[in-house]
Specification:
single chain; two-stranded antiparallel ribbon; mainly alpha; about 10% strand; 4 helices
Length: about 100
């Protein structure tokens, strides 16, 4: 299985484009058509992809629009971070409240 296919399968059902996968793989020195062998780097690529995708919450490609459940995407991102031994707080931010009086 190629890196492209492995990453796409791991991130199902979330809509990640081939171009996004290719770009992230290239940044990590992977060629998407090579046979997947470096699982640690695959996890890092998947974490980066999911963190980028969560900010979108919907994707439009080729005239087709897809939306997804952000909470499910966050759960997958946290699981990937745990598997990779990465601090999830670098990629997942919690909600925050700012009181009006603190703004002055």
């Amino acid at each position: 299985m190629t890196y492209l296919a492995a990453i796409r399968e791991d991130l199902q059902p979330f809509p990640v484009s081939s171009d996004m996968i290719t770009r992230k793989c290239e940044k990590h020195g992977l060629n998407v058509i090579d046979q997947a062998a470096d699982e640690a780097t695959i996890l890092l690529v998947e974490i980066e992809l999911m963190s980028q995708l969560i900010s979108l919450q919907s994707v439009s490609e080729g005239g087709v629009s897809k939306t997804f459940n952000k909470d499910s995407a966050l759960l997958l991102l946290k699981r990937l971070c745990t598997e990779a031994g990465v601090d999830a707080s670098q990629y997942v931010t919690g909600g925050s409240v700012t009181f009006r009086e603190d703004l002055s």
